[in-house]
Amino acid sequence: MSVFERRYELMPRSELDQLQLERVQALLVRLKRNVRRCREQIGDVRVESLEDMAKLPMTTPEDMAGSFPYGMFALPLREVIRLHSTMGAQGKPLVIGHTRNDLAQWGRLAARQLVASGVTANDVIQVCLGAGFYRGALGYVLGAEQIEASVIAEEPFHIDSQLAMLQNYRPTTLITTPVNARELMRVMDERRIDPQSFHLRTVLLSRPVDAAEREELSAGLLVSVQSNFGIEEVLDPGLCVECPEGRFHVNEDHFLAEVCDGELVVTTLCREAMPLLRYQTRIACEMKPDKCACGRSGATILPGARLDGRLRVKETPFYEEQIAQVLAQTRAANHNFWTQVSESEVVIFVQLTTELFSDMMWPLGELQRQIEGEFLTRLGIPAEVRFVQSAP
Ligand SMILES: [Zn+2]
User: Fold this and answer.
1) Are 276 and 327 in contact (CB under 8 A)?
2) CATH says 105-228 is which class?
3) What is the value of pTM for the model shown?
4) What span, in angstroms and rounded, lies between the C-alpha atoms of 67 and 60?
5) What pLDDT sits at residue 128?
6) Does the first or last residue of the chain, that is N or C, have fewer Cβ atoms within 10 Å of its Cβ?
7) Omega before 237 within 30 of 0, i.e. cis
């Protein structure tokens, strides 16, 4: 069995509980000292055992969005060495910051996943997540450096250069999105390229897929398929390790996970720049404390659907509210609309009114193209606009 940090990943439950308790207590001291919001909310609450967690206030995605850009930071900016942006509640922007220690930890946590996926120092890893909202590439690159594998850092996903890369650089592990992996499989099939002509052994997907899709990718690319589950505001990759049994173990030495009313709630135990106390992830979840055959002691979670209406097209996340905001910038403002979301595009049905129909300046075809263009530039999602008399 391959484990990167045995001491922590296989730590006996009682020791892990004690470590979590000590780290929560230290976190509360840091939060009360450095984050005004937390000082007021935490007040005199003391945590003497993990059961006391329930007494602590929660942090919502709306709290995060409301403190944009640096209100959640627990250290002055001069100690933060890396900033990146991600999407918060209802599409609002968020800044995530990392100190040098945060980045070092991120590398070790990502390395746990790589090692669990069978990657060693002898492997060539290609990180190809494609340009977009997902910021996980840095974590995988840091992780690959930890285990001293050769890493080809993030490349934009372009099918011809991807195929050339697989032929010439001979990566043995490809870290990519499910959409890219499927596209690769489709084109290889179409061009009759034998997957055995490559050296690829493992594909690590940026997010979980169902068993049927995993099976299909595994058979089509002749690789073992692993996946990651992370939350960008918390850490992604690095929150969990998917073990060879196909379970997601929370890295409990770094994160305290709770399931409250069916929602995954996470406390970061070690992060310096942006610690989060009982962050409500808006992701449905089940948690299983029972033992796993892989020997890891971290609780296993079964992540489910988004609870906040976040949608996704071609790996790009967005919210229904953002569709209304984009339409409001066009001639179709204040019109009824309905949406239909698939993996590859969103179809927006706009109710046709005499106002739109009789506007000589904007023939409908042109208006349609204009609105589609707005969706691509503003949200980065491919959209198809159709004018309809009534709800489809
Ligand atoms: Zn396991």
Assistant:
1) no
2) alpha beta
3) 0.93
4) 11
5) 93
6) C
7) yes
CA 263 – ligand 1 centroid, Å? 22
Q: What is the mean pLDDT of the chain?
A: 94
Helix (H/G/I), strand (E/B), else coil: 160: helix
Domain ranges of the chain: 6-98+229-308, 105-228, 313-388
Instruction: Calculate how far, in angstroms, residue 293's C-alpha sits from the geometric centre of ligand 1.
Output: 6
Q: How far apart are the first and last CA of the chain?
A: 53
pLDDT tier for residue 210 given thresholds of 50, 70 and 90: very high
Spatial CB neighbours of 309, under 8 Å, sequence gap ≥ 6? 319, 320
Distance 300 CA to ligand 1 centre (A): 8
Ligand 1 center from residue 12 Cα (angstroms): 14
Residue 281: closest CA among 254, 299, 296, 261:
261
> Domain 313-388: which topology?
GMP Synthetase; Chain A, domain 3 (3.30.300)
CATH superfamily placement of domain 6-98+229-308: ANL, N-terminal domain (3.40.50.12780)
Q: How far is the CA of 247 from the centre of ligand 1 (A)?
A: 5
Provide the H-helix boundaries in 159-229.
159-168, 178-190, 211-221
- Cα–ligand 1 centroid distance for 255 (angstroms): 17
pLDDT in tens, 66-78: 999 999 999 999 9
**304 Cα: distance to centroid of ligand 1 (angstroms):** 18
